[in-house]
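so im writing up the methods section and need the Isoprenylcysteine carboxylmethyltransferase family protein record in one place, dumping it here so i stop losing it
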Amino acid sequence: MRIKNANFENKNGMPKIKDVVLVSIQFFLMLIFFLNLEWFSIIFIEHYIWFYIGIVGVAISGIALLQLNVYLSPFPTPKANSKLITTGVFKLSRHPIYTGILIFMFSFSFWLGDGYKLCISLAILALFIYKTSYEESLLEDTFDDYKIYKSKTGRFFPKF
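--- predicted struct ---
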């Protein structure tokens, strides 16, 4: 029996990528739940991988800073005569500078095994969520194409 309007697969009969990613994350989380964390980190995750992931975060932020160039501002309000950038790292994330900062902070918290730094990372994540919501309302008022860009691009990470 076929379910009316069911769309479980893509055109070539394969499961949708979002479905595969969600189920993969689910099974990964269930697996690590039953593993001893100390044993897991020694066997499966080389200690320095967090260091290298942090470097990737720095690189993402650096590339985004270079792409913004003269349009860069530390404040959420867009600069006068600014341009909406939707290419490069901005094609993957609406806020790649924040993405890089978050990757750096979380990865170094794990690398150092520092709960205090992890709490600070969570606080900055909460701040960035709030700040980007405010910033995006300003960007929607400034750029006609921002709503379309927002619908196609993830806030911090790519949309599937």
